[in-house]
Amino acid sequence: LVDSVLSRLGLNADATFMCEGIPHVPCPCSVRHVFSHCVDISGALKKSLVRSLAPFCKKAEERSRMAHLASKDGAKDFEKHVANHDGLLQILTAFPSCAPPLACLLDALPPLAPRLYSLTSAMCDDGERLSAALSVVEYAAKDGTSRRGVASTWLERVASASSSSSSPSGAIGVHLRKSAGFRPPVDVVGSSVIMVGPGTGVAPYRGFLKERKFALTSASADATRGDWMLFFGCRHPEEDYLYREEFEKHAADGTLTKLVTAFSRVDGQPKSYVQHRLKELGKDVNAALARGASIFVCGDGAGMAKDVRAAFADIMVTHGEMTGGEAEMALQKMVSDGRYVTEVWCDEAHDD
User: What pTM was estimated for this model as a whole?
Assistant: First the structure.
């Protein structure tokens, strides 16, 4: 993608330039580095970017059309022809005479955002070694061109190179961001927990369960043991069932009280998602909530998180003898009390 953008703009990838006043661009910097490491060229286009590019269209008709897309009057056309398209290259391809200088692009393009991944490790078992789960993003752009996620593809490449080498290399710059309440209860033995995490949303629960298993080994025989339920969903059990062996062992040895799975792409079976399985086991879920269970939801915030919350409300109405309003108030109180905790992200096709 970087090569295609540089070719379209006629820029020398190896050329270096001095740049001051843009915090996400080092000085000096090469053209290739700035497009591959500093600015976002694959994200959804904003009107401000289109507005900045319009004056650099050499053909008057293209200049006028691009300016229209960035105007209030062009809002509908922008939504139809630009907003749902994929990145800088497509707008440059649609307007062949547009030739913005590098300085304009550096000013108009947003910085490449950090990618946040949930850790799957626990210090009691992994020490200071950190691990994370991610999906390598692959998608088709609006013009049919195959695209791959920026960060996930790079991480896959680094991991593959390290695993095939006797001396792993490829340092990765990371920073840790403390989660706002998304951590296992202090009493991992006696507390009850309902964990919902389809896909890579299951990542943090691997660490949760390692901590519980470690605590259970030293717990007294008469210690009260809470219920721990994990609802995991994926497409197919033989394709993307993450940490299957570990979770099944946890279910067998009692670390997990219930391991509930939902598969959405199994031939001959109806699509099943975590919210469906929650309602199917509504009586057990409501009983756990009545005993003070905390809820953790991790994964897609655009659809799944809303559907899961609706499922919990439905369970409270069906099995808890509440009205819809009472169920919503109960859930909101759980949020306020730190008993309904979410770690969600927007799961768009080219977000990685």
Answer: 0.83
